[in-house]
Amino acid sequence: MKFVDEFRDREKAGVLVREIERLLVRMKRDVTRPLQIMEVCGGHTHSIFRYGVEGMLPKSIELVHGPGCPVCVLPMGRVDDCVAIAERPEVIFATFGDAMRAPGSRKSLLQAKADGCDVRMVYSPMDAMALARQNPAREVVFFGIGFETTMPSTALTVLQAEREGVENFSIFCNHITIVPTIKAILDSPDLRLDGFLGPGHVSMVIGDAPYEFIARYYKRPMVIAGFEPLDILQSIWMLLKQIDEGRCEIENQYARVAAAGGNSVALKAIAQVYELREFFEWRGLGSIDHSGVKIRDAYARFDAERKFSVPNARIADPKSCQCGEVLKGVIKPWQCKVFGQACTPETPLGALMVSSEGACAAYYQYGGVKRGRDETEASAA
Amino acid sequence: MNMISISPRRSRGKVHVATVTLAHGGGGKAMKDLIDDVFVEAFDNPLLAPLDDQARIDLSSLSQHGDRLAFTTDSFVVDPLIFPGGDIGKLAVCGTVNDLAVGGALALYLSCAVIVEEGVPIDLLRQVARSMAATARDAGVKIVTGDTKVVNKGACDRMFITTTGVGVVAAGVELGAHRARPGDAVLVNGLLGDHGAAILGARGDMALQSPIESDCAPLHDLVARLLDAAPNTRFMRDPTRGGIATVLNEIAEASQIAIDIDETATPLRDEVRGFCEILGLDPLYLANEGKIVAVAPPDEADRAVEAMRVHPLGREAAVIGHVVDGEPGRVTMRTIFGGRRIVDMLVGEQLPRIC
């Protein structure tokens, strides 16, 4: 398949892996002092597991699977709000597929659907607005979720709804921003990360400038990476070159999609429709200042939070969850006390087990379970 | 005592209304008319014709085909009822015929139980019945008994069909999920995931237009050719819901062996690959309705593939992997990229990813 297969080439992968090995030897890195690289985005996590990238890398590199899965980091209180909205008889609740499994304190959207709520899976917010047009007597609420990647499409849908005068349509806005979150991780006292793979699709919207502080103030290199397995390998190689050469920069491997200045149309729509929240609650990471957006007053009538009174309760993460430590790379998923026992993709306790992009779910699904335990046993022996 | 005999040339009832109503399930004339006009009309055969409460089959006619009876049942609740490449009727016949075929059985007789929601157009019911009849003819099976129930609006999604099948296994054919041994080859008869992608596309939820057709087909003949060419085949299963990933896990578990497949050897249509790329789905978990996964001993694998490739339903047949020594129950895949990953059982339903 054109523009896909080229980025999954086995031979090129072999060349890159050998280059990575060579660099690591030069840098005198081994299993006892592995380099920790965080891929921020859940899309990267998924590709890494889907194509078995981690197993191709030398053991002296450790990939830490970051907080960039929007479904995973959604706190239970927000899911409860979704369910409360979906339970209103007049509401058709439209959502992306994988958000349906996110657990609330009472139930997930999948369970709410089974209990009779009208929950529909859509592929884009425009599909949700089409539902609103087709069902003028109902209230269609779109579950706006995701980082800057999905923010513009929700914003443009709001603008179009306003132009067309679609009044039975609103957004339950849970969009979050990546930069404050990376900052929160960098500020954590137990941080051990050596560098970052930056989320390519976020950069497609915001460009690379917003990450400059990571290199300048925190002295960590970042490579903005694409999502095919060769993109990921090449980005790791670029990161190692920076570290080896003593550079600390924000580089862009994904220039074929993500332009340096981002996408001005998308940025304009974001600025027009949303404003920053004081703080937003994250599963596993707690409350992070300015890490979420809400809909501006000018578009209040498209804001489900104002249209329907939502409970807006804060529900603490289950105590047994160690998602925060996994997110920061302090422990590996299989080292969590409840991994694969009380917490499985069927009955996720913690954030990272929820979506297939979550680090724990990816490990569980694509076989980190066994490998992880083997490694732990081997290092203990 | 007077006996009431049913003349084989009794007059058949006719339905004169456009939609199914509760009267058609009431046990009276309306029901008889519906059964006559829609089902008997389509399925017509001497075993069904008396419309007794049961079809009676000569044991001697069964035993000439083999030494064991194979017996299976399946329910069909597909949405939409008519989809690219098939409909619920064709599916209901193929599904049960295939469940018999992969056990090495010659499928002979089917039952057909239909639950219909009131308000369903009679013509739709007729179309489905005719599709069942045509597929049954292709598969060499007879639909010899049946049942029709009409339920209130909302009590079912337009139409559910259950088919039960009876077949006979020839002497000497021994198949079982527990029989796989290290070194055996794992085969499929063609492109994977077509049915799952066709149904998801046809539902229209995803607003994706796709040209993908269901692979729904009766596999009795293909399986017979395969068994002729590779008589020591260990096991076969049709990878319907849960896709080939599920079947491979079932084999690995039952035989307490490991299976390693190669992504580059896995036959996939470009359209299905593209469909999965866009929605973030894994084709290994997509349903098939005209595919088998077979495990064959190493010395018969090539012959098995060749035998399938000359059959219209097996042109893309391929060895996709092997049974290996390894952790019992474990299925792995060497990815197109050269890495290796575990192919686990699907948890819940595959849900499209956000971005």
Set down the secondary structure blueprint.
The complex is a heterodimer of chains A (381) and B (355).
Chain A (H helix, E strand, L loop, with lengths): L9 H17 L8 E7 H9 L2 H4 L4 E8 L7 H11 L4 E5 L13 H6 L4 E3 L3 H10 L4 E8 L4 H14 L4 E7 L3 H9 L7 E5 H7 L5 H5 L5 E4 L3 H16 L5 E3 L11 H10 E3 L2 E4 L3 E4 L3 E3 L8 H4 L15 H5 L31 H8 L1 H13 L1
Parallel strand pairs in A: 1-2, 1-7, 3-4, 3-5, 5-6, 7-8, 8-9
Antiparallel strand pairs in A: 10-13, 11-12
Chain B lengths: L28 H15 L15 H5 L4 E9 L5 E2 L2 E2 H14 L3 E13 L4 H18 L2 E10 L7 E11 L15 E4 L5 H10 L16 H10 L5 E3 L5 H13 L2 E5 L7 H10 L13 E4 L1 H12 L8 E7 L6 E4 L5 E3 L13
Parallel strand pairs in B: 4-5, 9-12
Antiparallel strand pairs in B: 1-6, 2-3, 4-6, 7-10, 7-11, 8-10, 9-11, 12-13
Spatial order of the strands forming the largest sheet of chain A: 2-1-7-8-9
Number of helices of chain A: 16
Number of strands of chain B: 13
CATH classification class of the largest domain in chain B: Alpha Beta
Count of discrete alpha- or pi-helical segments spanning 4 or more residues of chain B: 9
From the spread of the alpha carbons, the general shape of chain B counts as globular
CATH topology of the domain at 76-176 and 292-307 in chain A: Rossmann fold
Give the proportion of residues in helices of chain A: 25-40%
What's the quaternary structure here? Answer: heterodimer
Structural class of chain B: alpha+beta
What portion of the residues of chain B fall into strands of 2 or more residues? Answer: 15-25%
Largest sheet of chain A: 5 strands, parallel
